[in-house]
Amino acid sequence: MTLHQVNRRVHLYLALFLLPWFLMYGVSSIAFSHGPYFEELDKAKGIPLWTQRFERSYEAAVPEGPWSPGSPNAGVDRLLESVRAAGIGVGGNVYAELGSTWRTLMGSPHEAAHVLGKVIAALGPDNVLWGTDSIWYGSPQDQIEAFRAFEITADAQERFGYAPLTPAVKAGILADNAARLYGVDPAALPCSPSASDRQALRADPPTADRLLGPTTASAARRAFRADHPWF
What we know:
Elements: H1 3-28, H2 30-33, H3 35-45, E1 53-55, H4 76-85, E2 94-97, H5 101-105, H6 109-123, E3 128-129, H7 134-137, H8 141-149, H9 154-160, H10 167-181, H11 195-203, H12 217-227
Parallel strand pairs: 1-2, 2-3
Helix pairs in contact: 4-6
């Protein structure tokens, strides 16, 4: 096999490997690029419009510092400035979900204090939600432990007006805020099945063990066209 043939095969394999990712991100961006279209569809179907927005605007390449309303830096400041310009304050319909942000920040306590402090100040402690994107990184246990131990220093509180990161605020971010938002009562829905409970469920599952959704390529194309009429 010549070098030219090897080069062509390498490029072909790379293209086949990357194509699904490009398609996934391209299709997923449609919902964000055509918001009014989806809102009109929901109105026509009688579906209530979203009253919550989930944002993550952290940029790893942008050093995070204090936010000056009216003259924002990039990164998280752009989210906070857009919220301020829209007249949305503490307890409004904008929620900040941490996602990969905390994983990146937990090694930089100075920036972590700024991001958490100014997001909590602008949106309220009840409007910050826990997230880890752990599907990409594996177990989030180190992130959870780091967050539980993290504090916004007294110096940062005094200089920038940040609220302390109390145990109650941390509990809200880790679980209580999302539970309230989604209407879940953790105390009323304990999840501690015993080994015998699990064995009984496996022996007699409450629902049929069957494959859901399209099972052929043609059926998948029909379902996609039905759900995405703009294509």
